[in-house]
Specification:
The chain has a single domain, classed as Orthogonal Bundle (Arc Repressor Mutant, subunit A), CATH 1.10.10. Helix content is 56%, strand content 12%. The chain has 4 helices and 3 strands; from the N terminus they run E-H-H-E-E-H-H. Strands 1-3-2 form a 3-stranded antiparallel β-sheet. A hairpin with a 2-residue loop joins strand 2 and strand 3. The longest helix has 18 residues. The chain starts with 7 loop residues before the first strand and ends with a helix.
Length: 80
């Protein structure tokens, strides 16, 4: 997916696009539930990636990701 410079927005614009309060958006950022970029102290959001995120529906939770990682590591250890 190609992203253009005009595709990026700040947290305020992203929260308006998603119809979230800024506090809710920051909570989702901390939980890594929403796609974002961080450059220095600034957060950036791709409009297209936010639309894709909305379309994808449910994202894996950190517990799901950890469970998947544990399975992969266990499988790797069994191969040795």
């Amino acid at each position: 997916m190609e992203v253009s410079e005009n595709d990026f927005m700040n947290a305020k614009n992203a929260s308006e696009l998603l119809n979230f309060s800024l506090a809710t958006l920051y909570t989702k950022i901390c939980k890594r539930e929403v796609p974002f970029y961080k450059q220095g102290n600034r957060l950036y959001f791709s409009r297209q990636e936010l639309f894709d995120w909305i379309k994808e529906g449910r994202k894996k939770t950190l517990n799901d990701i950890n469970a998947d990682a544990t399975k992969i590591v266990s499988a790797m250890n069994k191969k040795k």
